[in-house]
């Protein structure tokens, strides 16, 4: 039994042991497996955060753990070892890096600034020519469409690919490496340097942002504020010149701060601090100084800002509008008998000289042609001046008189003045509003007149002209009537309030007829005599003129009604008092323009058919009417100019070559253009190759050669 | 005898033959001319009459429509120019078909069934040997521009399968990289099947991306969150983002001024931006009466053409707020894409009703070779019109355009609405504290924010 039991026991023990072993084996196997799972066996681009082993959490990693071996290695320099030791000794923890959003923002900011700056450079400065990299290119780029087929080739490619990525470059982040990959080798080198710089900048900005965020010192902020103020004052000076609107806004802000200062007791030395200082001031110099500073601050802040006025401008404008004296001079009469004999084109010397002195002679003209044109221009001007002579402008009332009258008026009617003032100001604002509306319309210069009328031929265009009634007909008629009022009736309003300059646009010019070249003097006389043998033309003309003058004079309006207030009937005349009372004399019209010209009738009626063809307002790019008129006056056609000049004047802004592709600008192109633009070449040549340019040069050279030969021939003859 | 005559003092009228003899027989006859201004009076009125006549003739000869290319079986979704040949254009339709056209012969050269669903974008390679298409089937395909031989199937050279739908594509000017947009903006190397870079800013999809043709590292894209985003391929992050009031559909860089681009917006306007000052557009171009769908610059960089949902094309000078020209025909429906030809002479438009139309860029320009005198006359007339452009009659005739009734009606309506809005704003300003309702210019109204 005992043996049996012992044998049973031994059996049992054996089983237990085996079981334990098995469990151990299993447990050991399981443990190993788990450990294996936490390892990453393959390199992947993206590392999942769920895959990372979290074994060592809670334990602190010391620098000595990481860099303990450095001490022992002989390769590391003493300096680095020393630095490491210093690092080990320092107790402070490193600050957390900025969050991702903020870092990205800083990165973008730096990148944007750089890119735009480069572009600004492109506007002016010459770029390095030929940016083609001469370095090695990627194999794929050189042999496009070729694939590695044999195992050897595949092996080589694999090697190349694996080596193309720099393995240990601690300077660059993976993102930056990706951007580097998109470039060639040489560019990449430059870029790497740039990126390093960018990173340095970035870390600097980050550090700065962090530092500033943490500062709590009031003094620091005070100093900061002061510095900003100083800077602002510096900028403000420039701002006044460059950006007046912004300056005005700033000015308003300053005004506001001034108001606040005036309201508050902040710098008035009335606070607790100030009182304590006041006690100390007797004995302490610094306290006194502090108080004075406060008062100074108050003074500075409450000082009124002075804005320069625009008076000078107005006086200048008035000066411009006065008319030269010779315009009003009566025309010298050459032939007292015959008014038709005045059409003389030849002029006396002095007049010519006076005109030429007006315009400074341009330096010696090299070309004969140009000289000729210059002469024509002078003649043309002379003729125009002549025409202007014909029309003496109306006499202007001296302004001082008007002002005096005004003063009297004001003293008489002081009660009405206020109402009037209001009216006038309303009128002014209304008028300004109207004008602004008009200018708004004018701003839409490029606006197409879109309608449902189709234009197929010239007749349609004529119909169009009738359909759309031209707006300016009514508008230009305004000035003349306005002038009449202004000069005829004594002004009963303050002159300074309605500014006539705003109300009155410029008078439309009367179309003037230049004289035709006349035939010989005696011959003309005989011809005229023969032609008008029968009739007395001169007296007819004078009569005609009188009639016109009479028609233009204001008529007396008779408002008398018979039978009112007295007896009426046949043969009865209204009494004198009644006539006196109800016959109203209208104010006399302004003096006629031809009153001093016995042989001329100048019609003062507006011709509406001409008005529809006239420009009513000064178009945008022109500064004054003189500019615009001179632009219109210069003819550009072949009738008035030589061929070369016409060609020059009608040169189009853009020339394209037929059937040539215009490539987008390349940087080299741009550089060439900037260098050539210094010379004369307003027209842009697009899509033209160099050969064409050469051809042009050649032809012009030929042209000059021909001209030269002509000159030579002339000299020979 | 002769000697006797010679000795006599005989006076003979004599002229220098240089004054009246032409040098070669090919020259035109010399006509002596006296330019004395007294002999040619009335220069201004005479030139004015000429200018008026020139303006009238310009309008009479304004026949911009050249040809219509039909053959597509669905609306045209995109057009692109051949990089090297003026006579070839490539168009993609909404049924996935791509067609190559010969313009002078006005015929289709080749038809390729490129994608399933829309063809979203086409671009041709700078060398003119192949072109790329992207479609709704999430693929980028590269095709040979030369037709395959007889009996050979049309197969793309290269196909890249993407993860999401691509909505636009553009190729680099000189290098073998291209950019696509969709969920992200990706930059691809032609030899690789995965993008070498990809940019994203937020979680938005993009509708259009374009390389800057001059500063070739710059990119701009229109996102569906109403923003326009700028990128630099050399940088690791996008540069800047402008958020506008409404979405921009497409944009186009000025090929001659590297820092300007124009975007076509849903709010019926186009905006030209300077990338150096993104907070306010340089110019607001308004005239369309419906969403603007596409825009393309002329190769000279002076003007651009825009296509709109309102069935018209308009041509704008780059610095003017209003259009100088409007093109429309009875049968043209919503214009989806538009391109300006590389020789600055023509404009191509693709519209909903399956036709591509060819227009002259200058409506009254005479086509073909011109003789020197014709050219001179044209230049003179142009200059005259320019000189007298401010005169009311000239201006009225030069500006007159025919517009279909419904568009005109819409235009009037919108003008009224705008006026009402303005009046309302004015009233609000009048009845609120001075300074509390700021006076905004038209330019400032449309930009919501600039994000760094």
UniProtKB/TrEMBL annotation, chain A:
One of its GO terms (biological process) is rRNA processing. Residues 703-717 have a biased composition (Basic residues). Residues 309-320, 365-374, 401-425 have a biased composition (Acidic residues). InterPro entries: SSU_processome_Utp14 (IPR006709). Residues 688-700 have a biased composition (Basic and acidic residues). The keyword Nucleus applies. Signal peptide: none annotated. Residues 1-45, 308-425, 468-498, 677-717 are annotated as: Disordered. It is found in: Nucleus, Nucleolus. The keyword Nucleus applies. One of its GO terms (cellular component) is small-subunit processome. Its main location: nucleus. Keywords: Nucleus, Phosphoprotein. Residues 1-10 have a biased composition (Polar residues). Pfam families: Utp14. Belongs to the UTP14 family. This is U3 small nucleolar RNA-associated protein 14 homolog A-like. It comes from Sinocyclocheilus rhinocerous.
UniProtKB/TrEMBL annotation, chain B:
Pathway: Protein modification; protein ubiquitination. Residues 408-419, 441-452 have a biased composition (Basic and acidic residues). It holds the Pfam family WD40. WD repeats lie at residues 69-111, 285-316, 328-369. Residues 402-452 are annotated as: Disordered. GO terms for molecular function: ubiquitin-like ligase-substrate adaptor activity. InterPro entries: Sof1, WD40/YVTN_repeat-like_dom_sf, WD40_repeat_CS, WD40_repeat_dom_sf, WD40_rpt, WD_repeat_DCAF13/WDSOF1. The keyword Nucleus applies. One of its GO terms (biological process) is female gamete generation. Residues 361-447 form the Sof1-like protein domain. Keywords: Nucleus, Repeat, Ribonucleoprotein, Ribosome biogenesis, rRNA processing, Ubl conjugation pathway, WD repeat. Its main location: nucleus. One of its GO terms (cellular component) is Cul4-RING E3 ubiquitin ligase complex. The keyword rRNA processing applies. Residues 420-433 have a biased composition (Basic residues). Belongs to the WD repeat DCAF13/WDSOF1 family. This is DDB1- and CUL4-associated factor 13.
């Amino acid at each position: 039994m005992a043996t049996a039991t012992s044998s049973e026991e031994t059996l049992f023990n054996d089983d237990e042991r085996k079981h334990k072993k098995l469990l151990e084996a299993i447990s050991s196997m399981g443990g190993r497996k788990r450990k294996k799972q936490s390892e990453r066996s393959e390199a992947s681009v993206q590392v999942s955060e769920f895959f990372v082993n979290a074994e060592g959490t809670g334990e602190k990693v010391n620098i000595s753990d990481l860099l303990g071996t450095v001490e022992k290695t002989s390769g590391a320099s003493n300096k680095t070892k020393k630095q490491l030791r210093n690092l080990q000794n320092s107790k402070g923890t490193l600050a957390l890096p900025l969050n991702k959003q903020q870092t990205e923002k800083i990165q973008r900011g730096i990148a944007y600034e750089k890119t735009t700056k480069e572009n600004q450079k492109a506007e002016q400065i010459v770029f390095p020519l030929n940016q083609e990299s001469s370095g090695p290119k990627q194999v794929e780029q050189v042999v496009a469409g070729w694939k590695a087929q044999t195992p050897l080739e595949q092996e080589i490619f694999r090697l190349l690919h694996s080596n193309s990525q720099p393995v240990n470059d601690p300077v660059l982040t993976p993102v930056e490496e990706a951007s580097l990959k998109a470039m060639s080798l040489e560019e990449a080198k430059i870029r790497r340097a740039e990126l390093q710089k960018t990173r340095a900048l970035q870390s600097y900005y980050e550090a700065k942002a962090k530092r500033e965020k943490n500062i709590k010192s009031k003094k620091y902020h005070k100093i900061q504020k002061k510095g900003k103020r100083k800077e602002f004052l510096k900028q403000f000076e420039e701002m006044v010149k460059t950006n007046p609107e912004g300056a005005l806004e700033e000015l308003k802000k300053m005004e506001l701060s001034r108001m606040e200062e005036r309201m508050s007791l902040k710098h008035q030395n009335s606070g607790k601090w100030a009182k304590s200082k006041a006690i100390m001031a007797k004995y302490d110099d610094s306290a006194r100084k502090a108080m004075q500073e406060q008062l100074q601050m108050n003074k500075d802040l409450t000082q009124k800002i002075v804005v320069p006025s625009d008076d000078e401008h107005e006086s200048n404008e008035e000066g411009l509008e006065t008319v030269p004296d010779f315009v009003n001079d009566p025309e010298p009469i050459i032939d007292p008998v015959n008014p038709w004999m005045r059409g003389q084109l030849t002029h006396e010397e002095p007049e010519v000289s006076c005109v030429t002195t007006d315009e400074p002679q341009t330096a010696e003209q090299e070309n004969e042609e140009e000289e000729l044109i210059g002469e024509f221009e002078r003649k043309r001007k002379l003729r125009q001046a002549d025409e202007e002579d014909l029309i003496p402008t109306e006499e202007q009332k001296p302004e001082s008189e008007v002002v005096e009258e005004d003063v009297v008026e004001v003293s008489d009617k002081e009660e009405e003045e206020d109402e009037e003032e209001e009216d006038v100001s309303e009128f002014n604002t209304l008028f300004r509003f109207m004008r602004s509306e008009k200018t708004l319309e004018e701003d839409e210069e490029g606006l197409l007149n879109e309608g449902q009328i189709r234009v197929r031929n010239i007749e349609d265009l004529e119909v169009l002209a009738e359909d759309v009634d031209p707006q300016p007909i009514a508008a230009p008629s305004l000035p003349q009537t306005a002038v009449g009022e202004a000069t005829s009736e004594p002004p009963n309003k303050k002159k300074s309030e309605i500014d006539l300059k705003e109300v009155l646009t410029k008078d439309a010019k009367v179309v003037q007829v230049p004289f035709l070249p006349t035939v010989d003097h005696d011959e003309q006389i005989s011809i005229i005599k023969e032609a008008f043998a029968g009739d007395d033309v001169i007296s007819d003309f004078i009569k005609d003129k009188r009639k016109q003058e009479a028609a233009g004079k204001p008529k007396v309006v008779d408002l008398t009604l018979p039978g009112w207030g007295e007896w009426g009937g046949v043969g009865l005349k209204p009494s004198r008092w009644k006539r006196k009372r109800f016959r109203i004399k209208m104010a006399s019209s302004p003096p006629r323009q031809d009153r001093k010209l016995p042989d001329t009738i100048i019609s003062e009626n507006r011709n509406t058919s001409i008005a529809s063809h006239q420009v009513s307002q000064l178009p945008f790019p022109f500064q004054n009417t003189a500019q615009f008129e001179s632009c219109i006056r210069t003819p550009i056609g072949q009738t008035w100019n030589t061929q070369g000049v016409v060609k020059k004047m009608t040169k189009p802004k853009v020339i394209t070559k037929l059937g040539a592709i215009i490539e987008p600008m390349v940087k080299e192109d741009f550089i060439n253009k900037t260098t050539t633009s210094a010379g004369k070449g307003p027209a842009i040549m697009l899509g033209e190759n160099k050969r064409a340019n050469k051809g042009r040069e050649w032809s012009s050279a030929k042209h000059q050669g021909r001209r030269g030969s002509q000159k030579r021939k002339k000299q020979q003859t | 005898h002769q000697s006797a005559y010679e000795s006599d003092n005989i006076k003979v009228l004599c002229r220098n033959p240089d004054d009246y003899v032409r040098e070669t027989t090919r020259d035109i006859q010399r006509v002596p001319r006296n330019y004395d201004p007294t002999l040619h009076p009335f220069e201004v009125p005479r030139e004015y009459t000429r200018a008026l006549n020139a303006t009238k003739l310009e309008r009479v000869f304004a026949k911009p429509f050249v040809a219509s290319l039909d053959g597509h079986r669905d609306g045209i979704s995109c057009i692109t120019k051949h990089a090297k040949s003026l006579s070839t254009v490539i168009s993609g339709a909404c049924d996935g078909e791509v067609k190559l056209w010969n313009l002078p012969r006005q015929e289709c050269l080749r038809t390729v069934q490129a994608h399933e669903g829309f063809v979203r974008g086409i671009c041709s390679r700078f060398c003119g040997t192949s072109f790329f298409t992207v479609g709704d089937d999430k693929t980028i395909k590269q095709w040979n521009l030369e037709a395959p031989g007889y009996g050979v199937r049309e197969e793309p050279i290269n196909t890249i399968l993407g993860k999401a739908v691509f909505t636009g594509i553009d190729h680099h000017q000189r290098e073998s990289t291209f950019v696509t947009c969709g969920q992200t903006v990706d930059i691809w190397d032609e030899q690789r099947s995965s993008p070498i870079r990809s940019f994203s800013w937020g979680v938005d999809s993009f509708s259009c991306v374009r390389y800057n043709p001059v500063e070739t590292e710059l990119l701009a894209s229109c996102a569906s969150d109403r923003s326009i985003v700028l990128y630099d391929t050399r940088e690791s992050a996008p540069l800047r983002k402008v958020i506008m009031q409404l979405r921009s559909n497409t944009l186009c860089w000025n090929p001659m001024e590297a820092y300007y681009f124009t975007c076509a917006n849903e709010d019926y306007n186009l905006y030209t931006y300077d990338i150096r000052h993104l907070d306010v557009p340089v110019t607001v171009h308004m005239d369309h009466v419906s969403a603007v769908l596409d825009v393309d610059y002329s190769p000279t960089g002076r003007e651009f053409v825009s296509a709109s949902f309102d069935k018209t094309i308009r041509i704008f000078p780059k610095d003017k707020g209003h259009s100088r020209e409007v093109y429309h025909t009875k049968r043209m429906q919503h214009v989806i894409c538009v391109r300006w030809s590389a020789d600055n002479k023509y404009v191509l438009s693709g519209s909903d009703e399956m036709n591509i139309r060819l227009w002259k860029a200058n409506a009254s320009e005479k086509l073909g070779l011109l003789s020197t005198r014709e050219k001179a006359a044209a230049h003179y007339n142009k200059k005259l019109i320019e000189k007298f452009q401010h005169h009311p009659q000239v201006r009225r005739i030069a500006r007159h355009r025919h517009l279909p009734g419904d568009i005109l009606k819409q235009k009037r309506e919108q003008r009224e609405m705008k006026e009402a809005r303005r009046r309302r704003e004015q009233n609000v300003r009048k009845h609120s504290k001075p300074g509390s309702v700021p006076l905004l210019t038209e330019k400032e109204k449309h930009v919501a924010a600039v994000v760094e």
